[in-house]
Amino acid sequence: MRFRPRFGSSLKWLIPGMGVKRWLLLLFVGITIVSLGLGYVLVEVYRTWAFPSVFYYLTLQFIPRAWRGLLFGTVGIAAIVIAVFQLNRSLLSAFRHPGQSSLVDIIYNHRHRSRGPRVVAIGGGTGLATLLRGLKEHTENITAIVTVADDGGSSGRLRRDLGLLPPGDFRNCIAALASDESLTAQLFQYRFGEGKGLNGHSFGNLFIAAMAAVTGNFERALLESSRVLNIRGRIMPSTLENVTLWADLREADNEPQAPDRVQGESQISKAGRPIERVFLEPDKVPGYPGAIKAILEADLVTAGPGSLFTSVLPNLLVPGIASALRASPAMKVYVCNVATEEGETDHFTLDDHLRALEEHIGQDLFAYVLANDNTKVQFPLHMKVDVVAPDSARREDYRIVTRDLVDLENPWQHDPQKLAEALMDLYWSVRTTVSAT
Fold it and tell me: Which of 26, 76, 177, 322 would you call most buried, defined as having the most Cβ atoms within 10 angstroms of its Cβ?
């Protein structure tokens, strides 16, 4: 576990790396030089001018010079400290929102996050957004790599009507990485519930689509949209190609006439049959260069949580992404879901998730697995899901780490803070061990 020092608010200014001490020292040197110059002038005036007797008392000449110097110095330093503090407080009050931490805490947290590990998170859907929401409190060096296979809902309509890459998962990631998830982030996530043509669309999807038209391409639209919400990190597609996700299905009872192959990410879970494999069409699409570069330079790469067949694997099926993962020296962790997913991973165990990964991308991509060990959770009766137990017979093939990762309000999902802390603890413990050897 990484050591995190605790300091009082005042002492935090003295922590190495805050970028404040050097300027305080320069301020002190400047004031000292000005004071020396003023002292020379005052000494000359004192020696050559004649002052009324009242100045004897105003200048405290009845006190020894050493004590006078100490008294004036103390009062002067106190005045400077109070003045600088109040000046900063007044100038920065316009940039702080109600309820925010003190200035020193804001600067300390920013410096701490800016020095955090370079993390690449691969996935899509709500699972990736959940992970990003927790990670942004630990590091700002985040790259989210998002699937472009989504073809349902608002994203699917924009994809068909405008020839646009599906913006929905990107919108979720932008909102999750926003520095202040308040009104602007809520606006980005707002979904219209009525209106001809608008019904079902989210404002963020329309915003990204409009930005793509204004800037000329989807990449620029993501960058500018991210700036609007001042996100902590970067968001990239796994590929810029217009891909379609297909699934080969196994036979299911009572459905002898059902098709063996389903087209479209949104239709796979609706088929209600066990999934044999998923694949992209076209299959040999180039990976997005920025995503490949981020993976090769990363300290930590995660895949999941999220829908295994429709959010995680579509990214890993892009040849350039898989090749970059194999070549990257980063620590690579697969984050298993808390619960199974109806129509996709029904009755899956942890080993079933690992088996599906291996059948699609091989056995050599992830050395670490993070799984939830809080199995004493209850799901709503209408949800046909099971908890994914962390028991595994694959502990010789993977280093499996278990923690309580459940969101108590939504027990079928990960808690953002628990998940991020577990990943960071795992990363720092492995890094510390490697450094020691």
Answer: 177
